[in-house]
Design goal:
The protein is an alpha/beta fold and about 240 residues long. Helix content is about 25%, strand content about 30%. It has a single domain (about 1-244), classed as TIM Barrel, CATH 3.20.20. The chain has helices at about 95-110, 125-140, 155-160, 180-190, 230-244, and strands at about 1-5, 25-30, 35, 45-55, 60-65, 70, 75-85, 115-120, 145-150, 170-175, 200-205, 220-225. The strands form 2 sheets. Strands 1, 2, 4, 5, 7, 8, 9, 10, 11 and 12 form a 10-stranded mixed sheet that branches. The protein starts with a strand and ends with a helix.
Length: about 240
């Protein structure tokens, strides 16, 4: 068993480098794995991807962020992405769990933030790995740090296993959805909501997909497959505000 930590993290923040405090906004810009200059949105909260982790067989390969971020304020959320290489057999065991926990903890705390978010999409047979990783991360973080996770909309609408997740926030992703996506979008547009009440505090939409009508009063994470611009941000913000 081995874990490879590769530190490519390169962060540029214009202005203050103190502990982040969330601006008074319901919108959160995701700064994913690409160069980002978000100084056009000084009053919008930022969530930065700080770590990228791949589980390949019995090895955990982890690295920091490749690309720079420029912003008017420090990010409020550190996002760690985890994925499983299904080209190799996945066997969840205590040794692999320890290696993954160490990698996630490292990149979740490499920059000071008040919220940590885990993005870890798993198959049905891999759900225990996600729950265990969240449990280990919750234990490693200060009690004052908010723990968030992304989730498939089907997890929030049709399943109950997320009730075991030790998190403060669950963020269903309303883009690139599976076959049940149209039915879920219609339910939300007709005034319905996610069946699991833990999924009713936040959601996420994408700049390259139609922004669906969704319940009001949610924190909204904004995703873009390309580097953000003032124009792309303005367009998705306008679409969100239209149903808020």
């Amino acid at each position: 068993m081995r874990v490879a930590f590769l530190l490519f993290s390169f962060l540029i923040v214009a202005g203050c480098h103190k502990r982040a405090a969330a601006p008074p906004s319901h919108l959160i810009l995701w700064a994913w794995e690409r160069p980002e200059d978000l100084r056009f949105a000084p009053d919008t909260e930022i969530a930065i991807q700080t770590g990228f982790i791949v589980i390949a067989g019995d090895a955990v390969h982890a690295r920091g962020r490749y690309f720079p971020l420029k912003s008017a304020q420090p990010p409020a959320t550190a996002l760690v992405h985890v994925q499983i290489d299904h080209g190799k057999a996945f066997r969840w065991n205590p040794a692999l769990r320890r290696q993954l926990a160490a990698a996630v903890r490292h990149y979740a705390t490499v920059h000071p933030t008040h919220r940590v978010q885990l993005d870890f999409e798993v198959r049905r047979s891999e759900r225990q790995a996600l729950l265990d990783t969240l449990t280990d991360l919750r234990r490693a973080l200060p009690a004052s740090t908010t723990l968030s996770m992304t989730a498939l909309t089907s997890w929030c609408m049709y399943e109950d296993w997320l009730n075991a997740a030790p998190v403060d926030e669950i963020v269903p992703m309303l883009f690139r959805m599976q076959d049940d996506g149209p039915a879920i979008i219609k339910t939300l547009a007709d005034g319905g909501d996610f069946r699991n009440p833990r999924c009713r505090a936040a959601l996420s939409v994408s700049s390259d997909s139609p922004v669906p009508r969704a319940p009001r009063g949610r924190r909204v994470y904004l995703f873009s497959p390309r580097s953000w611009t003032a124009q792309s941000f303005g367009q998705v913000r306008h679409a969100v505000e239209a149903w808020r």
